[in-house]
Design brief:
eight-stranded parallel barrel, 11 helices, Ala_racemase_N, TIM Barrel, about 375 residues, isomerase, Lyase, Ornithine Decarboxylase, Chain A, domain 1, pyridoxal phosphate, Alanine racemase N-terminal domain-containing protein, pyridoxal phosphate binding, eight-stranded mixed beta sheet, 2 domains
Length: about 375
């Protein structure tokens, strides 16, 4: 059966390595849980790993986290839409902000709900995503001083998520200066500089963190275990949290290059996933029960080096099997490790079955055993009523 599998043992390892590195730098972090796409079993497993602070840009996911971990701290990961201010305040302890109108609305809604809402103001440092200039930050800070139900807790920035801008010492120094200037101008302490991302985790693990940053928003590297800059595996992190298993529905020996004249516009996916140097070659080709309708497939890496992506349609993924001895048969599953875009699309797809791979008990207190027991009971109930 075609499915996405979450290896909880690998997730536990990565969480503990990152958590230890962040604590060693005397910093804080929140788990960016977007890649789980609200998958409840995955969120429960993440909570069992010890996660208590979560960030996401989808309120539905954050509401699920609230149900699973009622005492969790939750952050809304993008500037809140005015239309969603009520849900943001009800669901999240804090949010990242850049707009005066939204701050005013958050304050009014926090007063109505009888709560306090944390705010991090986002600075523009060159990524051209969310963020305000120094002059605009001063204006936003002035608004915050008139919002008694908002707690201004820090200054943040986003680098690398839109255009892939790499953080530099100049960026860190700029944030430090901005923080000191705002603290002095408004006589208001800002305990957090929230600009740490997955890009900075390799340095954290090697005990070489940027000293100006003390708050990290970490997601991709937690789940994929690879350096975002180089694409290489990071020491002590595992790369097998996510694995796609796709079932073989056809297995035949045939030519690897198409016959006839290819016409542009006939295939909606023409020109993609066409391995070079295969004209005239013949060999075993497998068709797998997963297609572009299920998600982005170009970022899949076969775990078997003898498997080579050949192309995909909306319903099927074609792979070539290299070598003389073919050890697969129809009904077998081939395994792949997805990159970020593929993992995101496949986890979001309601066509793909998602499962968790059980791990050893995490604590002497039996936290993990209790979690596994709940999963077994769920499966038993599903079978009874299926």
């Amino acid at each position: 059966m075609t499915r996405m599998e979450i290896n909880i043992d690998a997730l536990q390892n990565n969480f503990q390595v990152i958590d230890k590195a962040v604590r060693a730098s005397q910093s804080e972090w929140c788990v960016v849980a977007k890649l789980l796409c609200g998958f409840r079993d995955g969120l429960e497993a993440l909570a069992a790993c010890g996660a208590r602070t979560f960030a996401d840009s989808r309120l539905r996911h954050l509401e699920s986290i609230r149900e699973i971990v009622p005492d969790a701290e939750t952050w809304y990961l993008r500037p809140p839409p005015l239309s969603q201010v009520r849900r943001v305040v009800a669901t999240c302890n804090g949010s990242l902000n850049t707009e005066e109108a939204v701050l005013v609305a958050l304050n009014q809604e926090a007063a109505r709900q009888g709560v306090r809402h944390k705010v991090i103001l986002m600075a523009e440092l060159g990524e051209r995503r969310e963020g305000a200039s120094p002059e605009e930050l001063a204006g936003l800070a002035t608004v915050l001083t008139r919002c008694p139900h908002l707690d201004w807790v820090g200054l943040g920035a986003n680098l690398g998520c839109l255009h892939g801008i790499l953080p530099t010492t100049e960026h860190y120094a700029q944030l430090k200066v901005l923080r000191e200037w705002l603290e002095m101008k408004f006589s208001h302490p800002l305990p957090l500089i929230s600009a740490g991302t997955s890009l900075m985790v390799p340095g954290l693990i090697e005990q070489n963190p940027p000293p100006e940053i003390n708050h990290y928003r970490i997601g991709e590297i937690l789940f994929l275990g690879r350096d975002l800059e180089t694409g290489k595996p990071v020491a002590r992190l595992r790369q097998d949290v996510f694995r796609l298993f796709a079932e073989i529905v056809e297995l035949r020996e045939k030519g690897w290059s198409p016959l006839g004249d290819a016409m542009s516009g006939i295939s909606p996916f023409a020109g993609e996933n066409k391995p070079e140097g295969q004209e005239g070659k013949r060999g075993w080709r497998a068709l797998l029960a997963v297609g572009r309708l299920d998600g982005e497939l170009s970022g899949l890496v076969p775990e078997d080096p003898q498997v080579q992506l050949a192309g995909a349609s909306s319903d099927l993924l074609a792979v070539n099997l290299i070598g003389d001895k073919i050890r697969y048969k129809v009904g077998d599953c081939l395994s792949f490790r997805p990159d970020y875009s593929s993992a995101l699309g496949l986890m979001h797809s309601h066509y793909i079955e998602k499962t968790v791979l059980a791990a050893e008990p995490m604590t002497a207190g039996g936290t993990w055993r209790r979690w596994l027991s709940r999963q077994a009971e769920r499966l038993r109930v599903r079978r009874i009523f299926r």
